[in-house]
C-alpha cells in the first residue's frame, strides 16, 4: 500500500519534525504537531471509487493515515458510522435538512475509538511499549481496548468522579488506572510527571500527533456520504477539540487532493454552560482560552477546563465562519429524551448538547432554513444510563400494567 506520510508540522510556528521517531509537542514552541502528507501524490493514488469499493471502516482511508505497515493496523470495527436524517427535529425547527452522524456505534460506544485506533497503532509501529494518558472518561476505555489488542501497557489517570463505566472499561481491558481528586487537568499533570520519570509515551490529547488522524476520518466519511458536496453546518460537542481539528484537517486534505473546492461547513463548537472556555473566548473575541475554573457538567467529555490546542480551535472557528455556543444541563438532559422519543436516537449527553444548541442557533438567525446541518453524536447514551435524568417520566406500577388475556 502506498503511504504518503511526509513529516510533522507545528500548528503554530510551522516547525517540522521527522515522523519516524517519538514525538509529543513542538520542540520550538510547545504547541501541537500535525501530520503532513504528500497530497499531490495522494491525488494520483487510489480514487474516490477505490475508497468506496473497500470494506467500510476507518482503515479504508489508509493512504491518508500515519501507519505505514498494514501489519500494525489495529482494527476492532471502528469507523464507517452512518449519517442519517432527523426529519422530525428538522420540521420542528423549520429547517430543510438535519442529519446526525452516530458515533455511538463504534466498538467501545464512542468516537474515541477512532483516535485510539490510529494513535495506538502508530505508537506500536514506532516501537513504543508503555503509554500513558489522562482522560475525562471515554478516551481511557477506548485506548485501553486498542492497547490491549496491540499488547501495549497503558496507564490511565482520570478524575475520581468520572462515570464508573469508564473506570470499569479501563480495568477490564487491563489498563493501570489512577484516580485523581480534581479535573482532567490534574490528571494530566500526574501523567506528565510520571512520563518524565519513567519514560512512558505521553499520548495525552493533542500532545502526540496521531490521535487527530483517526478523528479526521469522521470528516472523510461525511464527505464521502454526501458525495463530496459538504454540508453547510456541522455541530461538534467540544471538550479537548480533537474532533473539530480533525474535521478541519480532513477537508483541507481533500481540497489539497483536488477532491473538493474551497467551500467549508461552518463549524460550531458546542459546550456546557458549566465548562465553556471556548465559548467564553469566542464571545470575547480572544485568540486563546482562559482556564475555566470550577468546571462542572454531567456531560463528562465536555469537562475540559482549557483545550490544549485552544489557539488552533479558535482559529478554525474563525476560518470556517463558525461559532461557539453553550447550553444548560437542563437543556442537555431534555434533548437526550426528546431525540430518543421523536427520532429513535438515544444519544450521549455530549451529543445531546449539540441537539440542544440547534433551537438557539435557529432563533438567532445564524442557522438558516436551507442550511444542510449535521450533528455529531459522539457516543451512545447506554454508557450514561445511570446518569440520565428521567424526571417527569411515568413509571407504571406492576398492578397498572395491562396483560393481554389468553
Can you give a write-up of this model?
This protein is α/β, with parallel strands linked by helices and 406 residues long. It has a domain of 200 residues: 3-Layer(aba) Sandwich (Rossmann fold), CATH 3.40.50. Helices cover 36% and strands 16% of the residues. The protein has 14 helices and 13 strands. The strands form three sheets. The protein has a six-stranded mixed β-sheet with strand order 4-5-13-10-11-12, with helices on both faces. The chain has a four-stranded parallel β-sheet with strand order 8-7-6-9, with helices on both faces. A three-stranded antiparallel β-sheet has the order 2-1-3, with no helix packed on it. Helix 5 links the parallel strand 6 and strand 7. Helix 5 runs parallel beside helix 6. The protein is globular and about 55 Å long. The termini are far apart.
Give the averaged pLDDT, no decimals. 94
> Which sequence of SSEs, written as H and E, runs from N to C?
EEEHHEHEHEHEHEHEHHEHEHHEHHE
Work out the strand percent.
15-25%
Which stretches of 5+ consecutive residues score pLDDT under 50?
A: none
**Tally of separate helices:** 14
Q: How many beta-strand elements?
A: 13
> And the CATH topology of the domain at 83-109 and 212-384?
Rossmann fold
What structural category arises from helix and sheet content?
A: alpha/beta
Shape: globular
Report how far the terminal alpha carbons are from each other: 63 Å
Rounded to an integer, what's the Rg over CA atoms? 21 Å
Lateral arrangement of strands in the main beta sheet: 4-5-13-10-11-12
Residue share in helix: 25-40%
Please outline the major beta sheet.
6 strands, mixed
Architecture (CATH level 2) name of the domain at 83-109 and 212-384: 3-Layer(aba) Sandwich
CATH class of the domain at 83-109 and 212-384: Alpha Beta
Amino acid at each position: 500500500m502506498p503511504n504518503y506520510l511526509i513529516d510533522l508540522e507545528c500548528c503554530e510556528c510551522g516547525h517540522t519534525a521527522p515522523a519516524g521517531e517519538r514525538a509529543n509537542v513542538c520542540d520550538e514552541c510547545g504547541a501541537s504537531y500535525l501530520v503532513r502528507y504528500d497530497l499531490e501524490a495522494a491525488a494520483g493514488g487510489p480514487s474516490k471509487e477505490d475508497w468506496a469499493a473497500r470494506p467500510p471502516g476507518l482503515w479504508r482511508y489508509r493512504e491518508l493515515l500515519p501507519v505505514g505497515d498494514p501489519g500494525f493496523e489495529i482494527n476492532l470495527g471502528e469507523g464507517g458510522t452512518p449519517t442519517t436524517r432527523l426529519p422530525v427535529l428538522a420540521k420542528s425547527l423549520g429547517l430543510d435538512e438535519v442529519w446526525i452522524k452516530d458515533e455511538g456505534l463504534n466498538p467501545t460506544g464512542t468516537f474515541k475509538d477512532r483516535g485510539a485506533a490510529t494513535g495506538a497503532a502508530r505508537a506500536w509501529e514506532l516501537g513504543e511499549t508503555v503509554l500513558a494518558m489522562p482522560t475525562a472518561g471515554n478516551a481511557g476505555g477506548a485506548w485501553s481496548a486498542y492497547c490491549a489488542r496491540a499488547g501495549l501497557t497503558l496507564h490511565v489517570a482520570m478524575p475520581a468522579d468520572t462515570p464508573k463505566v469508564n473506570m470499569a472499561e479501563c480495568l477490564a481491558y487491563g489498563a493501570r488506572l489512577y484516580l485523581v481528586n480534581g479535573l482532567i487537568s490534574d490528571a494530566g499533570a500526574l501523567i506528565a510527571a510520571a512520563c518524565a520519570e519513567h519514560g512512558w509515551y505521553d499520548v495525552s490529547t493533542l500532545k502526540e500527533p496521531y490521535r487527530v488522524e483517526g478523528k479526521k476520518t469522521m470528516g472523510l466519511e461525511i464527505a464521502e456520504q454526501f458525495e463530496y458536496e459538504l454540508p453547510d453546518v456541522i455541530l461538534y460537542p467540544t471538550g479537548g477539540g480533537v474532533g473539530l481539528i480533525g474535521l478541519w484537517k480532513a477537508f483541507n486534505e481533500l481540497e489539497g487532493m483536488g477532491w473538493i473546492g474551497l467551500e467549508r461547513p461552518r463549524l460550531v463548537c458546542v459546550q456546557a454552560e458549566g465548562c465553556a472556555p471556548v465559548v467564553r473566548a469566542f464571545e470575547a473575541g480572544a485568540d486563546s482560552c482562559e482556564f475555566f475554573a470550577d468546571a462542572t457538567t454531567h456531560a463528562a467529555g465536555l469537562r475540559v477546563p482549557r483545550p490544549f490546542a485552544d489557539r488552533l480551535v479558535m482559529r478554525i472557528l474563525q476560518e470556517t465562519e463558525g461559532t461557539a455556543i453553550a447550553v444548560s444541563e437542563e437543556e442537555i438532559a431534555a434533548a437526550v429524551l426528546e431525540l430518543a422519543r421523536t427520532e429513535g436516537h438515544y444519544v450521549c449527553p455530549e451529543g445531546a448538547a449539540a441537539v440542544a444548541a440547534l433551537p438557539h442557533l435557529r432563533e438567532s438567525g445564524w442557522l438558516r432554513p436551507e442550511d444542510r446541518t449535521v450533528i455529531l453524536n459522539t457516543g451512545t447514551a447506554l454508557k450514561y444510563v445511570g446518569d440520565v435524568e428521567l424526571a417527569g417520566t411515568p413509571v407504571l406500577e406492576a398492578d397498572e400494567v395491562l396483560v393481554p388475556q389468553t
